[in-house]
Each structure stands twice: as C-alpha cells, then as structure tokens.
C-alpha cells in the first residue's frame, strides 16, 4: 500500500493477545464470561439503585453513572475482539478503528472524572455533613455530570481528530486487541510530534488533574476522620468512602501498571495483556466492590432480585 493520508486507509490488523491458535477458544470463553459479568453486574447496580427510593442520593446517582460508563467502556473493545476470534479475522476498518478509539478515550476519561466527582461528594459528606444536601443539590449533581461529559467529549474529539491527519504506510498491524491511541500513532509514517504533545498534555491535564483532586479530597477526609473522638464514629465515617477508595485504588493502580508496563517492556503483546486489567478487570470488579462493601446496595439488590 502506498503512503497516503488517513482517508485512503481501508483497514488495520489487530494482532490480539496471542498468536497461538490453540489459545483462541480459551481466550474467547474467558473474555465472553468477563464481559457478561461486567454488563450484568453493573446493570444490576443501576436497576437496584433506580428501584430503591432510599438510594436516590447524590452518591448513588454518581454510582449509577459510573456503572453505565463501565458498561460502555468494555463494550467498545471486547465485542469486537470476540467477533475477531469467532470469525478468525483480525481486520478492523479504518473508520471502525477511529470510532473505537474515540469511544475508548471518551469512556476512559468519563471513568476518571466521575471517580473524582465521587471523591468530592465523599469530601462534602464527611467534612461538611450538616450542609451536605444543600451543597450536593440535584442541580449541582446534574451540572457536574454534564461538565464531565463535555470535557470527555472535547478530549476524545481532539485526540481522534489529530489521528485523522496522520499518514500510514504499508505496515498496518496494531499489536493490541483494540485500537489504542498510542499504538495507532506509533504505526504512522508521518510526523507524530503534534499527536504526542496532544496526548501527553491531555493526559497530564485531564488525567493528572482529577487524580490530584482525589488526593486532595482524601487528605481532607482523613484529617476530618482523625478529628472524630470515638472509634465507632471514625469507622462509620470511613465506611462511607471505603468502596469508592477501593475502586479508585484499583482504577489508578491498574492504569498506572499498564503504562509502566508499556514504557518498560519492548514486548507489545505483554503491554496488550497488561491493559486487560485496566479495560476489562476493573469495570468487572466495581459492582462486586460496591455490593460486598456497601450494606445499602446489598439490601437494594436483595429486594430487586427478590421481586
């Protein structure tokens, strides 16, 4: 294929997680199971919260949004990978690759910022409990979610638009199971400096910024909990943010592990395998973390399933 601009590219090859044919049925069954658990688990969280009027609070409103985003997040990558395994085809069209990349960036950033909004919610609940319902009113909650979507859409649109200007040569193999932004940029044969600057800037601003916000919120939360005189009061206050803290630790721990693995390893397939933790395992575990560590969610799920 002659070098050309992005619009002349017809298709890419996704190399997947393994080239071994004997492992394909195992990978298919494993990822299908994980995908179904992710979708059903997060869907149960949404339905349980929606059906229980006692859970119509800001914290569970944000949790429903997180569960919806997690469903969409995994749905941008796993179904296509399962289809490729089932059909023994690794092809993804140029349009499909750009679309998948756009939605992957969108939902990953939504996950990131919603976790930050939830940290702010916990900060207000613990540090300003008497003013919680006044501060976290429905208008503010709706505005926070709206701003989260706007920032995520702008970030995803900018990064995807930058890729459209790239030229690709004959080697169109992506050593991943989905069209990940940095992998697509790496196989371009034109100048990728503007793309790299955009990636690093957006990652620093919209990745590091929310993480700093979470750290600040929890520094205030810990200081406030330490000021509570009774141990029972400290435990009760900490228990209200334990689930969120677990999800945040899992989200940032796995995402950091992916990028450290990508930077340190010369084996692209190892990096692809590491990214499974970030793209599949974390969204799958979130419902379990909230249902196992949160008595309100447990009771709501029991009432919903018992209907």
Q: Describe the main β-sheet briefly.
A: 3 strands, mixed
End-to-end Cα distance: 59 Å
Q: What is the share of helical residues? A: over 70%
How many DSSP E strands? 5
Helix tally equals: 11
* Lateral arrangement of strands in the main beta sheet: 3-2-5
**Average pLDDT across residues?**
87
The SSE order reads EEHHHEHHHEEHHHHH
* Overall 3D form: globular
Oligomeric status: single chain
Taking all Cα atoms into account, the compactness measure Rg is: 21 Å
Structural class, please?
A: mainly alpha
Give the low-pLDDT segments: 1-7
* Strand residue content: under 5%
Description:
It is globular and about 65 Å long. A 3-stranded mixed β-sheet has the order 3-2-5. Strands 1-4 form a two-stranded antiparallel ribbon. Helix content is 76%, strand content 4%. The protein starts with a strand and ends with a helix. The longest helix has 34 residues. It contains 11 helices and 5 strands. With 307 residues, it is mainly alpha-helical. The N terminus is likely disordered.
What's this model, at a glance?
The protein has 307 residues and is mainly α. It has helices at residues 24-51, 58-75, 78-87, 94-127, 132-135, 138-164, 181-186, 193-226, 231-264, 268-293, 295-305; strands spanning 4-5, 11-14, 91-93, 167-168, 173-174. The model is unreliable at 1-7 (pLDDT under 50).
